[in-house]
Every structure is written in structure tokens, then in C-alpha cells.
């Protein structure tokens, strides 16, 4: 690998690491609680939820 290609690869790596360093992080417990709350709030809209009340299918 030439030094120019190596330098550009390292520059891309630095840019990626800077991007990842700027990501806001939260605790796993908080993320899990938010995900569980979201799922419970949207369970009635979930087409794959086997426990929701069945609807009749109308074909046009």
C-alpha cells in the first residue's frame, strides 16, 4: 500500500472515530425501558401481534 493510500485510509478512520465519539450514549437499562414502553404503546398497531383482536378482511 502506498503512503498516499495509507494516509487517506487513516484519515477516513479518524473521521469515523470522531463521528462515533460524538454519538450521544445512554445506559442500556434506560434504552431497554424506553424500548419496552414503545412496544407496549404500539402493540395494538402491530400487524404481527398474535394477541390483538382479529379484524375481518375486506377485499375491494
TrEMBL record:
Any GO CC annotation of this UniProt entry: heterotrimeric G-protein complex
SMART domains according to UniProt: G_gamma, GGL
UniProt xrefs under SUPFAM superfamilies: Transducin (heterotrimeric G protein), gamma chain
InterPro entries referenced in this protein's UniProt entry, alphabetically: G-protein_gamma, G-protein_gamma-like_dom, GGL_sf
Record keyword Hydrolase present: no
Keyword Acyltransferase: no
Stored PROSITE patterns: G_PROTEIN_GAMMA (PS50058)
Pfam families from the UniProt entry: G-gamma
Residue ranges occupied by any G protein gamma domain in the UniProt entry: 3-60
UniProt-recorded Gene Ontology molecular function terms: G-protein beta-subunit binding
Subcellular compartments: Cell membrane
Membrane topology per record: Lipid-anchor
Principal localisation: membrane
GO biological process terms held by the UniProt record: G protein-coupled receptor signaling pathway
Keywords on record: Cell membrane, Lipoprotein, Membrane, Transducer
Subunit: G proteins are composed of 3 units; alpha, beta and gamma.
Family to which the UniProt record says this protein belongs: Belongs to the G protein gamma family.
Role summary: Guanine nucleotide-binding proteins (G proteins) are involved as a modulator or transducer in various transmembrane signaling systems. The beta and gamma chains are required for the GTPase activity, for replacement of GDP by GTP, and for G protein-effector interaction.
Protein name per UniProt: Guanine nucleotide-binding protein subunit gamma
Amino acid at each position: 500500500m502506498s503512503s498516499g493510500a495509507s494516509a487517506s485510509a487513516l484519515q477516513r478512520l479518524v473521521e469515523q472515530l470522531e463521528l462515533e465519539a460524538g454519538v450521544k450514549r445512554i445506559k442500556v437499562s434506560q434504552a431497554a425501558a424506553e424500548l419496552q414502553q414503545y412496544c407496549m404503546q404500539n402493540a395494538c398497531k402491530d400487524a404481527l401481534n398474535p394477541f390483538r383482536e382479529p379484524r375481518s378482511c375486506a377485499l375491494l
